[in-house]
User: Fold this.
Amino acid sequence: MKHYESSVPEDEPAVGPDEVDPPGAPLDARSAHRIALRHREWSLLDRGGRAGRLEADRRLDDYEEVARRLLHDLDPLPLLDALIALGVESDDDGAFLDRVSTGAVEDVLHHRADLHQRIADRCRAEPSWSEAVRGATIDPELAARLPSPLPGLFPAPPPEAAGTGSPGRRNGRRPSLRQDRTGRRGRRTV
Assistant:
């Protein structure tokens, strides 16, 4: 009986998500703006119809470059400045700014604790930064650890999100008539 033999040579190092890109040099404003424009074009394609989404899939490098630079560059704030500025000046009813908030800004807040104070300073100085940060979704524990004024920009979760309801209700709903008050079906005894 023949055993399985791998076709991968033993001496090659594995390539995968465990490898970390080395930190990149900070971008100048012009380069950051060019990258932000490509990201906005990718975003518009990705939100469009089937043909646009297929083209966005082919241009996924534009998205990945932004994600990589935000997480690994020494100073990604020029790129965030450019993305937020494009989001504010876009005439798409805030759709691109929402995407920047829930994507780029949220990723930086979750993964780059070294930038929290600088982001707080930008929020104090520029209303567009406050608007972008307000659109991010952050868990309450992280929001409590952020420097002022960042915690005040995130709304408190609604009480129904915590699963609190009145007694006898599960998540604020009444149980079905076929169920007991905990929401489980009763067992018949014969």
Remarks:
- The chain has a mean pLDDT of 80.
- The first helix runs from residue 29 to 47.
- The two ends are 58 Å apart (CA to CA).
